Every structure is written in C-alpha cells, then in structure tokens.
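User: I'll paste a sequence; please echo it back and then give the predicted structure.

Assistant: Echoing your sequence first, then the prediction.
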Amino acid sequence: MVTERPVSGFTLDAKTDFAHRSVTLKTPPVLKSPAFIWLAAAITLSLTAIPISSYAKYEFVSSFGSTGSAFGQFNGPRGVAVNSVGKIVITESVNNRVQLCTDVGKCRGWGAFGVLSGEFDRPRGVAVNSVDRLFIADRGNDRIESCSSTGSCTDFGGSGTAVGKFESPRGIAIDSRDRIYITDTDHDRIQICNAQGSCSAFGTTGSALVQFSSPAGIAVDSRGRIIIADRGNSRIQICTTTGSCTAFGRPGTAPGQFNGPAGIAVDSNDNIIIVDRFNDRVQVCTQQGSCTAFGSFGRGVGQFDAPWGVAVDDQDRIIVADLGNNRIQIFAEPASIPINTGLNDAWYYRETDGQGFFINVLPTLGVVLVSWFTYDTVRPADGTPSNLGEPGHRWLIAVGPYSGNEAVLDIEIASGGLFDTKTPINRAADGTMRLTFSDCNTAAIEYDIPSIRRTGIVPIERVAADNIPLCEALVNPPAVAKNTAKVDVEPSTSPAPQAVVGLPINTGLNDAWYYRETDGQGFFINVLPTLGVVLVSWFTYDTVRPADGTPSNLGEPGHRWLIAVGPYSGNEATLDIEIASGGLFDTKTPINRAADGTMIVTFNDCNSATITYDIPSIGMQGSVPIERVAADNIPLCEALAAQAQ
C-alpha cells in the first residue's frame, strides 16, 4: 500500500511497510562539544521555561445515541455509572427511564413517568454498589430508588427537611463500603445513607466552607474523601464524612474555573473528573485543584452541549452524558511512550501542505530539539524582495527537557543572519512548545507564541515508518521478537566514537547537524530507506538583509529554509532543492513549488559530512562541512554501517 504524504513542498510515496534491523546500541557518555551556539543559549532559556496553557491529555474514543425513545436513543441523558461487567448505566430525565448499554450503544432499559417504585420523575444521578444494585436520585419524587438491573425497585426518602428526607436530590455516589452519598440539592446539604435509608447529614446554605449552593454531582475517592460539585458557587469542595472541607475553583473559563459544574467522578489515581456544564467541557483536576480541560460547544466529536453526568470505567475511560446532544461520549488518555532516540525523524501534519517538523532527541544533553519550518501569519506584500527562497519563509527552533512522553520546549527566534555566512545572530525567547507522543508514530505539538498572540495544537505523524521498529524496541525490549528489531543498549567504554571508513548511508545518520562557523543556522537530516531517499532541511537566512521595517509577524523577515530530497547510494546523496511558497503559518493554504538547484550530501563517517550546494536562482555555489549537534546516535550509525559492509 502506498500513501501520498505531502512533505515540506514535496509529495513523497510513503510505503507503510518497512525494513527491520538488528543493531547493538552503545550509549556514549560524552557530549558533543561544542554544539550549536544557539542551542546552548536555548538550553539556558529552557531552564526558566514559562508553562504554556494546560490541556487535558484525553482523546475521543467513540460515541453512541441519538434523540428518541427507542433503546439506544436518549432524551435528556443525565446520570452515568458503570457496573461490574462494564455496562454503562444511564438515566434519562425526559424519557424517565434507565438504560444499560454496551460501549457500542447496544441498550436495554426500563422505567416510565410516575410515583411508584420503578417509575421516575426527572431522574438524575445514578451509582452502582458492590453487588451491582443501582441507586438513582429520583429528583421529582424527592427520593432515592434502589433497583436491580432488570428494574425491580424499592425506595427511601420523600419530601421533607428531616435527615433522610430530600428536596430535589441530584447527585449520588457509593463508596467501597456501600455507603451512599447524596447531594440534597435544594437543602444545600450532603446526606450519607445506608441502603435502608438511615442517614446523617452536613452542610448549610452559603459560600463558606461546608456551605453549598445547589450542589450537583458527588463522588468518593479511594481514601473516602467526598468530592462535591458546589454548582452555584462554581467550585469543588472536598470533605470528610464529618464535614471538614477544603475547596478549589471559582467562576470563569480558565482551567480550574467553572460555570455550573455538574457531574463528578474519580479515576484510579484519584484525579477528579468534572463536567463543567455551561463551559461545555470536561475538566480533569488534581486534589489540589490543578486542572486541564477538553471539549467545547458543538455537535462534533469531542464537543458538548450542556453535558451533565460523568463516570469512569475500569480502564479509566471517561464517559460523559452529553445532554443537549442526546448522546454518550467516551474519552481515554492516548497511549503514550517514553521519549527516545527512535523518534528522531521528519514529521508532518496532513492538513498543512508545505510545512513540517524535524524532531531530535538528544539524551546526553537531556533535551528535545524541534525545528518547525513554516510561514509568516500574513503573506508578504507583492514585490517584497527575496533572493533565496521566498519572503514568507519562517522557521521556529524549540528546545527543552523531556520526561516520560512529554517535552516542554522554549521557542527561540534568531535574527540578523545571512545565508551560509559568519554573521552575528540575535536571539529572543518567544513562547513555548509542548510536544507529547502518543505512540511511536503519532504526537501532538501545542504552541503558545505571545508575540503573535497565537496558540494551537497540531497533530503530527512521521513522514515514513522506517524508525518505528527502533522506537518500539527502545520502549519495550521484551517486544523485540514481535517487532523483529533487536536493540541491546550497552554503556560505551570508549572515550569517543570511532569513524567508519567508506560509510554507507543509514538511518543512524538521522540527526541535527551544524557548521561551527555559521551561528544560528543548521541542518536536519533524515534517511528514509523505504522511500530510498534522503531528506534535508536547511534553516538559514536570505543572502541580503531585508530592509529595516520589512513587516514580519512570526519570526523575522530574513528567515529562509531549503528542503532537498533525492536518492542515495553508498555514502552520497544527490538531492533536488525545492522552494515552496504561498503558505501561511499552521494554515491549510495552497502551496506553490519550484525546483531550484541541487544539493549533494557526502558522509565521511558517522560524525562528519559535507553539503555541496548549487542554487542557480541566486548564482551561488558552495561547500559546507557539517557535524552532529550531539553524539547520541553515532553508535547506532556505526552498528548499521558495519552490518551493511
């Protein structure tokens, strides 16, 4: 199977199958010295990184339901719970019934409007005890119903102010000892009951701690703490069974702020899942109130219309009653992998033709380095001078530390350079980039660039699958046999990597490279064996400085990047340079392409190469000696080279 993938001005045939290799890796103990001058400065900046806006690491899994009264349809889905066999229990406030559904929407149910046991008047919250008995807050009847999964019910409560009586109960939860926790909403209190309806209570009306304003959802964590959506106060209270409480949150739209919080659940790590109803989103919070959010208003996947209930299943999937859309949506944390050098590659976003990313993991430096070759946010005026490339070119370099599957990087804008010239470079921090890997082939980049007041999230994937086996083997060594890629990581005892004479080009050369004399410029090299090509990105500058006052929103007006791709044989690759023009930053805009010269890359060994260029449009030819930024991948290169010889 062959898939068309647009890559930085090229359309490559990216085959989905890939060659497997057996290599022995040795981890070098020493840093490459010196590395990029600009890289060192950027690493210094990363130590004082400003966190970017938080976002929840959950992705849409599936949904089911539509408006109606047949099984599998909903009218006013409110409460959600999950029983011991994974069935999703849903209450419907308009259909006045309960449905038990599989996660693909195969449902059965029972119930009707009325006052008899097994009948309901606008039911709300639902919870399941240790023997799969359902407890339902029957709001309009001011009672709690206890039902079997087939609809055989009893009830307790009724209208009144005494303990054990209720006024419009909304939320319900059950702890590991089968104690029942109920938000007695119109009495602004919490009741704790047994299955027979013997109860205690705490709380009064107000905004101080242990006071409530129309409390809605309720949950109990693994330590028995009671977590309450204090809806009218737009906050969350965390209380003991004796009514000692703390709180977080206030009205607003930022993470950790709420507008009518409704359903509450806790996951296996005691994270608090909150339906932020009138902000049309879900927030995931720590017990201390550090929150992230996902969702927005709408009918699309991952969007909500006044959602109400939430539950968490035994896989920690978040199940949301999307009230206004009469459906159930399911979300999960994406699979994640620890960052490793198998992720070093060319990456792209399918929707932004002519733009792309080069990612390099540098373990000896403890950082990830990302180059994003893109465009300004506004097209340069017609006639804006440009000798090399086109005046809209921009590139962003970001670098910073990583942990687990995530790296938080500082974006740095370099300005003042000239193409392949030893000119002074000025640097300025300009925002932050968060890189999160879901697996060995998919990731997301979230950016925040204050100078242009732009934030966004870009899903990315590899250009080609060549390095996936290496990534998988580094993530999970026991899976080597399945992936047919053998990777043995051993500490190196040699003081420095040894050169391999007559080097054949291999994927161990995939890395960030630089020329010591041209500060603020560099190269990303990717060998793609399944395509039989080498891909080079050269981030550089125009040959002439733009005039003072030349407009530039993103980056600086002198930025240029060259992309070259072509076949390789032995230690040499002959590449075509192509100039892409017409794009806009992170935007689906048409791209024009024009061939503009050639580039020859000749590798002397695993740590040094020469790039020879010929660019007719500017009448310039030259030769640039390059070396790696860091020595991390030299052992891999040497092992692959020895294997090929």
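The mean pLDDT is 86. The two ends are 30 Å apart (CA to CA).
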